[in-house]
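Complex record, two chains
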Amino acid sequence: MARYQAGDFAAATALVERIGPQLHRFFIAQFSSRADADDLLQETWLRIHRVRHTYRPGEPVLPWFYAIARRVRIDHYRKASRTTARERSLEELPNVAATFPRGDGEVDDLEALLAPLSESQREVIRMMKVAGMSLEEVARATSCSVGSVKQKVHRAYQNLREKMSVMGLKKGPSGGLP
Amino acid sequence: MKDEEVDEVLEKASRVAHEVEPALLERVAHSIHASLRPVRPLPPTWVLTGGLVVICAAVAVAGAARTGFHGIAKLSLWERVPIFSTLGILAWVAGKEFVGELIPGSRHRVRPGVLLIIVSVALLAVFALLFRNYRTEHFISAGIACLLTGLLLAIPAAFLSWLLLRRGFAVNSVSAGLVGGALAGLCGVTMLELHCVNFEALHVLVWHTAVVPVSAAAGALVGWALRSRSKLA
């Protein structure tokens, strides 16, 4: 990131290749349409590029990227809501993911697993599991306190535990849960 | 099911590879290469926070210099120390949060609304401890004059603060406006404590303290208007 700020082309390309797919997955989970996710990824990178001086070397880099990506996503959602005259808060975003998986089959689709959760819970789980961010980093990315993130994770796990128990979900042959 | 088992299921599901068209990534890289120049990162948080506190102090002193240092002259040392040290601490805390609002991915210890409550309650507590004269004269007229004076001084403080942080990027302009407004309001209160000689408890508790929430609300409104304007653009 410091080399990108210094104007290094190779560093910029490496960052796009490394962070781009993560951000694309972050968007596609929200908007289901690949075209929307592609547009948002490009818009996010343009914004990242414009404000790259706001990153300070030594600070965690993922929360910085995700905070900007979140901003772009919220702007896009609000714009879309205005167009369709359906103003709803992000907490009430429609469940674009598939419905919760049924039966005892193997579960590979993260979005299907997260479908019963609220958007804010899904967001923190995605950041932790897909991007591999810590509680502290998720708190920074979402402008929340660590306590608030912990509470969301706790509630998300509680929901998932209940749903998985009811559905009798298993991890499949490779995992082998009892 | 245990948490560890839920964790394992999630870990497995999240490991599924996500493919992005290489052409898309190439397009993105190409678009940023076109304007890739070295940039100077923002200074550390403590430098920016210190700058904000200095701006607030300078604007408050300049405002009092214009209207007269009558209030501080009438205050005893035992009243000056708690009032101005509280204002200094609150300005530092609000300044630090304001800097955090303008740097994506910053650590937030308190939410903007909670910060506003903390600042207001702290001011109320200090004023309630120091001012015990509950007699009131010209409560409304004198109060509105002080409120307006404080708010008028908050405008240059907010403008200079924005000038210092103009290279920042607010991920939530309403929150940033609210925190910036609260900081500018603290500058207005500081000026009132330097200038105002009306030590009636209700006057100070209501009208001096009110500068902070009113200024914060105005800041949030400006943030909201800026956000709406940028969305329309």
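Note: The longest helix of chain A spans residues 9-31.
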